[in-house]
Amino acid sequence: METPAAADAEVGSGLLEIANSMNESPTSASLLFPDFPVIHAAELTIQKLHEITGLPWWATITLTSVTLRMVFVLPLQVYALHNAEKLSKLQPEILEISKRLKQEVSMAMHQFKWDEKRAKDEYIKNMKRLLVDLHKRHNCHPMKSTASFWLQLPLWISVSYSLRNMTSRALSPDLSYHEECKTLKDQGTLWFPDMTITDSTWVLPVLMGFVTLFNIEMTHLKIQEETKYRKRLTLFLRFLALLFIPISSTMPSAMVFYWVNSGCMAAVQNILLDWSHLRRLVGLGPSETESSSPIKVLVNKAKQKYLNR
Predict the structure, then answer these.
(1) Which residues contact 282 (CB under 8 A, 6 or more apart)?
(2) Is residue 32 in some structural domain?
(3) Do residues 117 and 36 both lie within one domain?
(4) Is residue 221 within 8 Å of 298, Cβ to Cβ?
(5) Which end of the chain is more exposed for a tag (fewer CB within 10 A), N or C?
(6) Is residue 109 part of a domain?
(7) Is 257 part of a structural domain of the chain?
(8) What residues form the membrane-spanning segments (predicted)?
(9) What does the pLDDT look like over 143-185, one tens digit per residue?
């Protein structure tokens, strides 16, 4: 089963590659995969949402992020947690199966004169078969626990590319959908009224870095047993979050604003899924990290880990 840290690592490893492909000044010649069905659909959906709601672009982007997270990602996260609970409940049975299989392999080893390698191969082969049967019987394949990750990443990439293309369309009258996108130049908010250009103040990139670090630390604080691998992974992700600040400073504000919103929604969802009342509401059982006051618990853990050293 893939852990939140492992999922973060996979997302992190792809961020720089995605960023490099986006890191060009918007021009009529720099649309990114505009004919790719998912990206094209994302563009049209965001434009339609802007048209129907009549909201300014900054609010439309916020609404897009909230809708994607609450309608698609959150239900899949709950589904993944239900699957993880099923897998956890199977552990005693798996241990019993393993114990029984080892005894059978040991007997066969003596009866058929197998060497150690043959015995090990037979154990692994049969254990895999028995686990597959067990997961099928209980309808809880481990891959189902990664469902939310495999949706989040394509969604994030598709919306990011679509916003990048929309800023190009806004700046280029010769491109299709220019009329629908040109108001991106004056429907920002606060210090970034023009969402087609970079944020010269660096506030959005720094906010994005802060939100990313917050999510990394929140995952880190939930870890019960910290191994060397987990420590190195957390350090790598922290470095990546900081490195992405200057990279995102070269991106259109519309994209970076979406990343900030998406990161904030991820943090809210993670906190909600540690709230015992919500867990009972969606049928999830007790967990070691849940609480009736998850924010208070998070703050106390942070104080204990970072201040009381």
Answers:
(1) 78
(2) yes
(3) no
(4) yes
(5) C
(6) yes
(7) yes
(8) 202-223, 235-260
(9) 887 877 777 888 888 999 999 989 988 888 777 777 888 888 8
